[in-house]
Amino acid sequence: MASTIDDSNLPKTHKACVYDKPGSCSIAIRHVETPEPGPGEVLVRLTHSGVCHSDYGIMMNTWAHLPAPTEEGQVGGHEGVGFVAKLGDGSERAGVKVGDRVGIKWVSAACLACPPCLEGMDGVCFNQKISGYFTPGTFQQYAIGPANYVTPVPDSLPGDLAAPMLCAGVTTYAALKKSGANSGHWVVIAGAGGGLGTVAVSLGAKAMGYRVIGIDTLSKKDVILDSGAEHFIDVMAYDDDGIANRVRELTGHGAKAVIVCTQSNEAYGQALGMLGFGGIVVCVGMPEGDPKPIARSYPAAMVAKQSSIVGSAVGNRREAAEVLDFATRGLVKFPVKTVGMDELQSVFEGMAKGEIRGRVVLDLSK
Ligand SMILES: [Zn+2]
Ligand SMILES: [Zn+2]
């Protein structure tokens, strides 16, 4: 049976930003065919999409662990917010209706049957589909998502604030939860001025009650303090031991956790030295290029200080709902710049130079 929805207003084609020369920083604006949702799928009319550093990695083919190079014509993006425009057959059984506000995130589809899914960790599903790599992503006006896996988005949260919650928000929230920190604990955010970092600082300080130290380059100082950090440390002003000493000086005994939000192997190498007793390093930022082990992970020191290193990738469906709730209540404040679709290439160019503060969001109506 066909969809029960009047789709007379749906276009045949729509505007999309595509990777026209994967491996280089190049975006073409094209009109692509608006797809029909298949059984169990919904078509989402997207209003906003955040731009994440992972999109840049996929465009540039710098993520060594992905199974194949990115194809020409791929539409990137994985922080999409919009409204359900059409239901595929059987989709109503997932409880979604036309007009519902939903989001599409990094894991655009999960199998809900593999070992991580059965543990409630669908964000690391072994059979996941990555939006903007395996499936056409959210840098376009319409995209398909599974009816049972799109994320409900509160109506009162503006689209440009909602979109970054679907990757940066859920990723940093899940990482902060994994840190084992309680309110009042010291938490260091490495790479605190970037797209993940500012959200992590804000969530940690305002929503979760941590005492936050942000580390980054001097040009990011104001944005880090404005996002809620109690202290800023200029990464360039210290060597590796010096930066750890500075954290111990500020905290007394070292931090409860260090959340590494940057792609820098050096930042990972500095992190263990900042921890106090029983502290945890949470790995979030994905280093590009040849994989390297975390420097200075000396077993004797880790045994003596009972340190741990854990990995954290995005988050599950419940964490996505929780972080959207924090944002709706005004507890996640970070800089957002909203631009039109034709500015995506220059956003990526700025990202490559480390010039982006906070999050850039595409307004997909422009
Ligand atoms: Zn992302
Ligand atoms: Zn799974």
UniProtKB/TrEMBL annotation:
Q: What is stated as this protein's family in its record?
A: Belongs to the zinc-containing alcohol dehydrogenase family.
What SMART domains does this protein map onto?
PKS_ER
What's the name of the protein?
Answer: Alcohol dehydrogenase II
Whether Nucleus counts among this entry's keywords is no
Protein keywords: Metal-binding, NAD, Oxidoreductase, Zinc
Concerning PROSITE patterns, the annotation shows: ADH_ZINC (PS00059)
Q: Which cofactor does it need?
A: Zn(2+)
What SUPFAM superfamilies has UniProt attached to this entry?
GroES-like, NAD(P)-binding Rossmann-fold domains
Q: What cellular component terms from Gene Ontology apply here?
A: cytoplasm
* Gene3D superfamilies, A to Z: Medium-chain alcohol dehydrogenases, catalytic domain (3.90.180.10), NAD(P)-binding Rossmann-like Domain (3.40.50.720)
Query: Does the record bear Protein biosynthesis in its keywords?
Result: no
The taxonomic lineage of its organism, from the top, reads: Eukaryota, Fungi, Dikarya, Ascomycota, Pezizomycotina
Q: Which Pfam families match?
A: ADH_N, ADH_zinc_N
Matching entries from CDD domains are given as:
CAD3
- Ranges for domain Enoyl reductase (ER) come to 23-362
